[in-house]
Automatic annotation (TrEMBL):
Name this protein carries in UniProt: PTS sugar transporter subunit IIA
CDD domains: PTS_IIA_man
Principal cellular location given in the protein's record: cytoplasm
Location(s), subcellular: Cytoplasm
Amino acid sequence: MELLIATHEGLASGLISAHDMLAGKNDQIASIELTDTGIRDFKERFAQIMQRYQAGQVLILTDLKNGTPHLIAEEYEQQHPDRVRVVSGVNLPMVLELSHRLITASLDDSAQKAIEIGRNQIAVDQMQLV
């Protein structure tokens, strides 16, 4: 299984940079970002990346549900439900945890784990009620 991080400009590359610093480089993780070159350019670049994954499974992590990267990724999930999953709300703990599971975990288990991590990593250390 492969991991693709698809976000608006700056986020995916930042997540991969932080991942690589903390856990080391992982060739099974790729990224694509929507930039000011526009949606058409993003769609073309996205299609090129997905060509590489034709023979395998890919978990796509996006930043905003219903944002452009998410909607384009969702199209691929609908066309290839047997080998593509899309999870929105990507964060660094999600990327770190999933990067260690890419070889052994199933696509559905990885998608479920991404959701679990995303939910569990949101916390407030000290909350003062007014």
